Amino acid sequence: MLRLLKTTSIWSYRFFNGAREQAIFDTINSAGVRFTAADTIKNLLFQRVIDLAGEDGHAEIEKMYDDYWDAIFNGEAQDYWYQIHSQGRINRITLEMLLHCVAVVEGFYDPNRHSASDLSDCYKQFICDKPLSDLKAFIHRIAKYAKCYRESFRDEDAGHLYGFSDVRDRTLNILRACDTSTFDPLVLKLVYDNSQLDNGFESEGLMQSLDRIAKYVLLHVVCEESTKNFNKECAMVISGAKSIDEYLSEKMAEGKINNENVRVGLRRIKHNRIARCILFWLELRRRACNPVDIKKLPDTMSLEHLMPQKWQEFWPVSLLPVVDAETGAQLDRSDVAELRTKAVYEIGNMALVNQKLNTSIRNHTMREKVLGNGNNKPGIGALSDMLYTKDVVTLVNENNYLWNEKTIRDRTNELTEEFLSVWGVGDMPQTVSSQGSQTP
């Protein structure tokens, strides 16, 4: 029943009114089939258009449905648009996520007042008093939004190659690593507005705006600043009332986000996905700035803690004394075990490898982790062609495989400066608005 309602001709939707609408919902629910918010919105929209068009307009509306809905969201594209995503305790299909973004951009869904369960009602209220011409134009816009969305919000395809200059890819990859979709409507609006330029190129304003979003979110995560106001901030930027840079300046003034907090944050990264994301994009940046053959990479690398998280067996303080991270002086105090554990979670203790290190050597000494154990279990040196990881291998080879709190801190400081050169906050540049334009 549900499949029929999704794919058959538009005349199926003429029955969605009054008692007959309720009867159909009851039939679907009794069969245990979930009628998605996207299905509800589709039926509400086209039922309203049919009613306004009258008998003489049925042929035009049927063609509009075929061209601007069925051809876009069904058929070969159906696997993409009906893919299920988990967002907290809620499962949503891609099409619902698109329609949520559209509602936020169009201004009739307020993330601060409405929840996901309100989406259908928001569309119903938006549709109910619109004339036929406005609804036709809205359907055309949904189709354009869908094109922009699918080009930007790609499937998590392991075969996709990322390059540092691909700002749209970089922004969305960072947002996903930071586990936020709150700014998706703003990203969609920016891409949509740029597509209206119809010149086939991404404008400088678009790239700067997308870059600002990624930077804003990443700095919040690294500085451990609350993200609870992202919904409000996204809506305000879309409306043009404020800009990302204005919000960032405010938080800098309050001392919540600054370069010192970045330095602190990069010394205690507990979320592997964040560390992996940072190292991945620094790697791509380095490749972009150096004469290497491979500029693009798939986002498939694994994160390895060089000094292992379970360090007690092969890295005991009795064999490898804990040293002061800044001076290298050996420490003799009661909390050395705690200091070693803290060092494990510095960004300088992390590296990307092309595949996971074998569990039999993951917690072993640095020598064995780098060289492997000779039983067809290769170490980091053989498992990664990442430039930063190769630097670590070279360093420990030259220093008799020494790896301690001091070498970790030295590398953390180096990576932190590179992070700040990309995402640091110094003098604020010109303000970038939601329209991608620059203002003094």
Short description:
The protein is mainly α. Helices cover 54% and strands 5% of the residues.
Keywords:
440 residues; two-stranded antiparallel ribbon; mainly alpha; disordered N terminus; single chain; 3 domains; two-stranded antiparallel sheet; elongated
Shape: elongated
The main sheet comes to: 2 strands, antiparallel
Number of domains: 3
Query: How many strands in all?
Result: 8
Q: Terminal Cα separation, in Å? A: 56 Å
List the uncertain runs. 1-33, 427-440
> How helix-rich are the residues, as a percent range?
40-55%
Give me the strand/helix succession.
HHHHHEEHHHEHHHHHHHEEHEHHHHEE
Beta-strand residue percentage: 5-15%
Residue-averaged pLDDT = 88
Number of discrete helical segments: 20
Rg is 26 Å
Q: In terms of structural class, how would the helical and strand content be classed? A: mainly alpha
Which strand order spans the largest sheet, edge to edge or round the barrel? 1-2
Describe this structure in words.
The chain has 440 residues and is mainly alpha-helical. It has three domains: 2-151, no CATH class; 161-258 and 425-439, no CATH class; 295-416, no CATH class. Helix content is 54%, strand content 5%. It is built from 20 helices and eight strands. It has helices at 2-7, 18-30, 37-53, 58-73, 78-81, 94-106, 119-128, 132-152, 167-177, 184-195, 204-222, 230-239, 244-253, 259-265, 272-289, 336-344, 366-371, 380-383, 387-398, 405-423, and strands at 84-87, 90-93, 161-162, 297-298, 302-305, 350-353, 431-432, 438-439. The chain has a two-stranded antiparallel ribbon with strand order 1-2. A hairpin with a 2-residue loop joins strand 1 (84-87) and strand 2 (90-93). It is elongated, with a radius of gyration of 26 Å. The termini are far apart. Residues 1-33 and 427-440 have low confidence and may be disordered.
